[in-house]
Amino acid sequence: MGTLATGSSALVDMLREYENINYLPYEFNDFRKPGFVGDQLSYESSQSYPNVIDKEIKFVNSRWKLIYESSIWKLLSPGMLGKIWEKDFKNRKLKAYRNSLIELFHIVFLKELNNSLKSDIPYPEKIELSNNWIHRIGSTYPSYYDFTLFNQPLHPWSDVDIWTKVFHPFKLIIVIRDPKDQLAEMVKRDIIFSPFRSSQLSYGQFNIISIYGNDRRGRMKFLRDALEKRVEYIDQWLNLLGPDQILFVDFEGLINNYELYKTRIEQYLGINDDRHKFKRRYFDPDVARQRSLGIYQKYLSEDEIKELDSLEVWYNNKVKKMSFEKSVNAKSV
After folding, report:
1. Model confidence over 286-308: pLDDT tens digits?
2. Domain map of the chain by residue range?
3. Would you list the DSSP string of 234-295?
């Protein structure tokens, strides 16, 4: 996961090049989405975010909704899906149908879990069933995958006492990025204004504009404050989780020291280069270097850069600490 526009997608692309890592071809929202699993396992959150899982589940299209409502899909088992997944379909439509079928099973698993979350069974049992739900998602893929990669499954404010049990066992990787380029990326993607250009604003948007204003300076201040809060939460996770459960990867280091970082990530995950069968097919550090490093010079003013000083200190301290840890590991090897 990342904290928005950090380059975490680049790491996902690199990890999907390993033959024993299966990645879900979309961001995983079923735990973190408001009113979904994470909130229903938290008493405080469930009061503010009532259960909307059945209401908010989205099917690929109406055809797949009809298939779900019929009994056709029940003729297939997860094991059969694994065999379908193994086939190297050249036809795009066949690949799309296969992925839709996988997603259909994920909806089935989520709906079954939700029935338990809405029941009056003991809380520890709900946690256990939620953990089983994560493992069932992995079971829809072939057994030769050692890992299932969940892209962006958590928000930084997710309750660490809950998600560590639901995703257990887990290896969390957090991608961080030079705050200057991170904010510049948001400007480049037009993220800083996009929620506020609708003809009608929500009550929450109206309140944010009342505090920060609706010009570029106000939006940049809002994003800066939001990022500072996110990294506070991540620092809390760092204090609670050990080095075998959480790893920081700075985007710049992944690009500029690709082989070193790749080795460090492999050591952390317990995989090796022999399984890296599709090198640079999806992530090429040379291309990323040209497109993504130093873009702040194009998109940010000198005043905007200066106002990122506190985030820059946080980032530099994290990178320095990681560099020290890498040098110690290199000596020990």
Report:
1. 999 999 999 999 999 999 999 99
2. 1-14+179-320, 21-145
3. HHHHHHHS-TTTEEEEEHHHHHHTHHHHHHHHHHHHT--GGGBTTTTSS--HHHHHHHHTTT
